[in-house]
From TrEMBL:
It comes from the Bacteria. The keyword Metal-binding does not apply. Transmembrane segments: none annotated. Keywords: Gas vesicle. PROSITE patterns: GAS_VESICLE_A_1, GAS_VESICLE_A_2. Its main location: other. It comes from Psychrobacillus mangrovi. Belongs to the gas vesicle GvpA family. This is Gas vesicle protein.
Length: 108
């Protein structure tokens, strides 16, 4: 009985796919009587995280549903915006009181 020295296991194939990456693209079109009703574009990339980052795909790092760092980043942005709005409000209230008006006289 002779065994092939070049057998590929599923692990070898998967390792090659993740190392190089694979792109699968396709379109599905549904129509009736030559009238296109629906088009679905499917794009699938299978690659390792390192390979994906190498080609510029890192959207999962900024997606708040997938990364707690993204939530922290968004929280910091909101906190900074809130701080600026408070400063602006204080400045406006000081200008109003400098003109002898009460801020309660205005509807916000």
């Amino acid at each position: 009985m002779e065994h092939s020295m070049q057998s590929n296991t599923i692990v070898d194939v998967l390792e090659k796919i993740l190392d190089k990456g694979v792109v699968i693209a396709g379109d599905i079109t549904v129509g009736i009587a030559d009238v296109e009703l629906l088009t679905i574009k499917i794009r699938l990339i299978v690659a390792s995280v390192d390979k994906a980052k190498e080609i510029g795909m890192d959207w999962w790092e900024t997606d708040p549903y997938l990364s707690s760092k993204a939530v922290d980043s968004n929280t910091k942005v909101l906190e900074e915006e809130n701080r600026k709005l408070h400063e602006r409000l204080e400045t406006l209230e000081k200008r109003i009181s400098a003109n002898g008006l009460k801020s309660s006289e205005f509807d916000y």
